[in-house]
Amino acid sequence: MSSTTRAALLSALALQAATAGAAESAAPAISFSGYGTLGVVHSSEDRADVTATNFQPSGAGYTRNWSPDVDSRLGGQVTAEFNRQWSAVVQVVTEQRWDGSWHPQLEWANVKYEVSPDLSIRAGRIALPTFLASNSRKVGYTMPWVRVPNTVYGALAMTNSDGADVSYTFQAAGARDTVVVYAGRNNSTYPFGNGEGYHERARRMRGVANTVTYGAATVLLSHFEARLSSDELALADLPYTVNAVGGSYDPGAWFLMAEWARISGHGAGVPSWYVGGGYRIGEFTPYLNYNRRNQMSVQIRQADLAQQSVAIGQRGVSAGVRWDFRPGTDLKLQYDRNQPNDGSIGTLVNPQPGLQPGHRFHVVSVAMDFVF
Questions:
Q1: Domain for residue 101, yes or no?
Q2: Neighbours of 225 (CB within 10 A)
Q3: Is residue 257 domain-resident?
Q4: How far are the Cα atoms of 2, 60, 198, 283, 349 from residue 69, in angstroms, in the given order?
Q5: C-alpha 326: how far from its chain's center?
Q6: Helix (H), strand (E) at residue 83
Q7: Which of 83, 93, 300, 345 has its CA 20 to 30 A from that of 119?
Q8: Measured distance CA(131)–CA(122) in Å, rounded
Q9: Could you tell me the CATH number of the domain that includes residue 289?
Q10: What per-residue confidence (pLDDT) applies to 294?
Q11: Contact 54, 190 (CB under 8 A)
Q12: Is residue 369 within 8 Å of 35, Cβ to Cβ?
């Protein structure tokens, strides 16, 4: 049974209970919303590709001088409220997948039951709450920069879980505290060279996230753990954990944001982090971001299909400006200066013969985000 089918069945069972409880009430309130990004990206490195996520097989650089595949996507969401306690959500996203296709995929499909205004339970396909932007990492309009820093968010590329979560919110000393505990599984396919993909199964997945909001400040602490298996990579029940801390302060005229994550797996702990901020001047928001990932090794296949272990440590600086030229729409221009560590290809993918590890590369991105 595929992960998409399993998520649909979980949601369908919960939905049946919800509709049964609401059978004698009024028809459910159904709403539709959507989001998207139209973008192009250029990279100075022509022996490998720049991508936005670990799921993309190619991007800007070697494959295309200017690529629309890196940031472009379209998403739609349907929300149904059956009564005060029961609701459901389905979100579908179209973006470049591991095989280069653009087939729509099911991002969320879950049913929610509110036990009380402070306590809720969800079942189905649910967003993993590991990072500050976990619920909106695909919605470019919600972010000041063109894309989330992959040096950090790439620590946990999978974005959802087929399972359940429990959320509890309480007030303390003027702060709002939300604790989410979850468990589930995930099946993902990643690019592996020459149009091939490797399948990764995450089992015994569980975690907790605690978000505290006080005025303009937000702090997140999270823990994720799972057992990873992949036939292609000869992995069997590899323990994998991600511990993350994030914080933001946004009083309105300006903002600061930072996140730190530590991967534990493959026998070592690898930290990554970023810090950024910006200042709003009318419709314009200039911003700056510094990000870094310490050295780690991953298995890849190069153009000759030889499997190799490569280092992907990198540091980088991003500078850009966001222009909110109309309600629900923005235009962003961003420049990235990336410096892979010595002997490292950094976050580059699809390496080709002649690529020089440790060689600095530059990226220019233009993106228009919209919500509706």
A1: no
A2: 17
A3: yes
A4: 26, 8, 21, 27, 14
A5: 26
A6: none
A7: 93
A8: 19
A9: 2.40.160
A10: 87
A11: yes
A12: yes
| Residue 175: HSE in the Cβ half-sphere, 13 Å Cα cutoff | 13
Q: Which residues of 44-72 form beta strands (DSSP E)?
A: 49-50, 60-61, 66-67
pLDDT for 269 equals 75
- The upper half-sphere exposure of residue 78, i.e. CA atoms within 13 Å in the direction of its Cβ, equals 9
Distance between CA atoms of residues 235 and 135, nearest Å:
29
Q: Which domain holds residue 272?
A: 39-71+118-371
Tell me which residue of 348, 356, 357 sits closest to 62, measured CA to CA.
348
pLDDT at 150: 94
State residue 265's pLDDT score: 79
Q: What is the largest CA-CA distance in the chain?
A: 68
SS3 content of the chain, % helix, strand, coil (to 5): 10, 60, 35
The answer to whether residue 113 is domain-embedded is: no
- The number of distinct structural domains making up the chain is 1
Indicate whether 27 belongs to any domain: no
Q: Which residue positions in the chain have pLDDT lower than 50?
A: 23, 301-309
Please choose, from the candidates 117, 116, 118, 150, the residue with its C-alpha nearest in 3D space to the C-alpha of residue 133.
Answer: 150
**Residues 362, 330, 106, 168, CA torsion sign:** positive
189/126 Cα distance (integer angstroms): 18
